[in-house]
Design a protein that fits this description.
By secondary structure, this protein is α+β, with helices and mostly antiparallel strands. It contains 5 helices and 16 strands. The radius of gyration is 18 Å and the shape is globular. It starts with 6 loop residues before the first strand and ends in a 7-residue tail after the last helix.
């Protein structure tokens, strides 16, 4: 099949407290809040998008804060993304160690298995987040006052899928989504769009035959999205998957992109999202993330929705 995936688009997680989530990802990790909106399928819940200055696909991390909504704590395990990794300059790891210790985060150093050093930290909801030190990542970072450009996160590095039987999942990525195996380590396979281990274009498959079954809930990653150029390519890929017998959703309007969803053989939920129209559809670049943005079909209920959301402050 003709590979059309450009990169990762975003990763989405279910989290607990909205303010704690903002503090960790925007203040401590220094990501930009590029969109403050609501879960289109449950508008009583925020949907935060974090990323670089423009919310470029491949830099985007998104969360649904479900505190007080009756969602149980999830179980990390097979059929799930169990680690989300961000790319930072290799020389900045000492800076991040000190910064994260001062923030009260629980962290440890680890080797990726592919020749890189990484810092693994647990966020306030229990999500595992890695900062991977890389030598080359030319993406321009979003840098706030106390995080300088030479230290700042460049964007997503990769996601790690925990899979009991990795062979079908690897074949799916290669044969249907155009990924290539670019590196292997004991119990772990790294794949990328193209033939290099470029940050933001990489997936790791953890071979975990004895892993417990995953259960979605607070502190777990919900899905990973892959970027395609436009709606035409998205529809083409949807039709290819349907013809091969895979169950794929209808195209869904997410305002800043359109999406389709399906599960890969190991059970991980995948999304294919378009690059356009992007996050400046309803805000200027300078004003991204400042106001609560609702899809047009929810504007008539703005007062009710705003009243149902917890108060938050972007510090």
């Amino acid at each position: 099949m003709d590979p059309i995936i450009r990169s990762l688009h975003h990763v989405t997680a279910t989290v607990d407290d909205a303010q704690a989530d903002l503090d960790f990802f925007a203040r401590h990790l220094g990501l930009r809040l590029v969109k403050k909106t609501v879960n289109f399928d449950n508008p009583g819940v925020y949907h935060f998008y974090y990323g670089d200055q423009n919310g470029t696909p491949g830099t985007i991390w998104t969360t649904f804060p479900y505190k007080g909504k009756g969602v149980p704590v999830g179980t990390k395990g097979a059929g799930q993304i169990t680690t989300t990794s961000f790319s930072v300059p290799e020389a900045s790891l000492d800076f991040w160690r000190q910064r994260l210790r001062e923030s009260g985060g629980s962290l440890r150093d680890r080797e990726t298995g592919f020749g890189e050093e990484a810092i693994s930290v647990t966020d306030p909801s229990g999500l595992v987040v890695d900062l991977v030190g890389v030598r080359h990542d030319d993406r321009t970072p979003w840098a706030r006052g106390d995080v300088h450009p030479e230290q700042a996160i460049r964007g997503l590095h990769s996601v790690t899928l925990t899979i009991r039987n990795p062979a079908p999942s690897i074949a799916f990525l290669k044969d249907l989504l155009g990924f290539q195996v670019v590196n292997e380590a004991p119990g772990r396979t790294r794949l990328a769009v193209g033939k290099s281990e470029e940050p933001g274009k990489t997936i790791e498959v953890l071979h975990a035959p004895d892993a417990p079954a995953a259960r979605n809930g607070l502190g777990t990653v919900h899905h990973v999205a892959f970027a395609v150029a436009d709606a035409e390519e998205q529809l083409r890929k949807r039709n290819e998957l349907l013809k091969l017998g895979w169950q794929v959703t209808e195209v869904m309007d997410r305002q800043y992109f359109t999406s389709i969803y399906f599960r890969e053989p190991g059970g991980v939920l995948y999304e294919i999202a378009t690059v356009p129209p992007g996050f400046t559809l309803d805000e200027t670049v300078e004003g991204l993330g400042q106001e609560l943005k609702l899809p047009p079909w929810e504007e008539a209920r703005r007062e009710l929705i705003e009243h149902s959301l917890p108060p938050i402050t972007l510090r």
